[in-house]
């Protein structure tokens, strides 16, 4: 075969590309060469500022829930006549709410900052409302503690006029403290979830539907665990049933939350928050089953109670740390904003269609 100069300069002839028949080239996916989206922010800064919280806030959440559940159990035991359970639950509520306040003050840095929050009442602020709920429950728990202390010390049992006056006061204060503890127990256990949901942190804000049920169920399970540790099994049969209900509420609401959040819930499945969440689920389910099967044995009840309390503490820590991780990664902020924008657009289209109809 003869090769001309042009062909020699051009080099060996390359095989011609065959034309695709039937418009196959036109039907090719136009995004086949588009790389995966990389979520980033300007200068590597966080889009949403992560909460600067340490271990004090998860402890504050856990102890507040423990106090709320114990106050509710104490009020119920007072109505049913379980004296030992009533006393232990009331003392536990007072100890837990005191430690919870200490953890909050430790995070604030100075005690007067907590007092500054009580100068106003702002119904649109979960922090303001929560401060007053916490204070009202603390007052009820303190009154119940005073009643139990007077009963243990025998104050108000004498025949003198001062002793009779004290005894009359104790009789009035006992039901008042029970009503107050029962009334503020559920708001105290749930308001911390509302507080988290009111922030700009993607995971917390998007979990506003299920997180209150996670926290209240976890609080009930933990307080039942404390009652099982401190009280003989003869007076905790109903408490063990409550523990099973609280654990079921906690685990069910948590899984519904994780399923609905989708990709935004990824921090709850990876890293340290993921390990804490898995440990919390195992401990909560194990504690509830142990309370049902081994609850009549004092040692078995105590071990089950410890598992329930540890599961509740791990649940709070997992949610807090996962939320902080979701704020650090711009991916979850962008996904969260896109999801909310799509929901608003869908709601607008529905409203327009209804108006047109």
From TrEMBL:
Composition bias of kind Basic and acidic residues appears in 7-30
Database matches in PANTHER family: PROTEIN NRFD (PTHR34856:SF2)
Membrane topology label: Multi-pass membrane protein
Q: Read off the Gene3D superfamilies from this record.
A: Formate dehydrogenase/DMSO reductase domain
- Give the species: Nostocoides vanveenii
Key words of the record: Cell membrane, Membrane, Transmembrane, Transmembrane helix
Q: Gene encoding this chain? A: nrfD
Provide the transmembrane region boundaries.
59-79, 91-109, 129-147
Would you tell me the protein name for this molecule? Polysulfide reductase NrfD
- Is Nucleotide-binding set as a keyword in this record? no
Q: Does the keyword Kinase belong to this entry?
A: no
| Family designation | Belongs to the NrfD family.
Location comes to: Cell membrane
Pfam families, A to Z: NrfD
| Region (Disordered) residue spans | 1-31
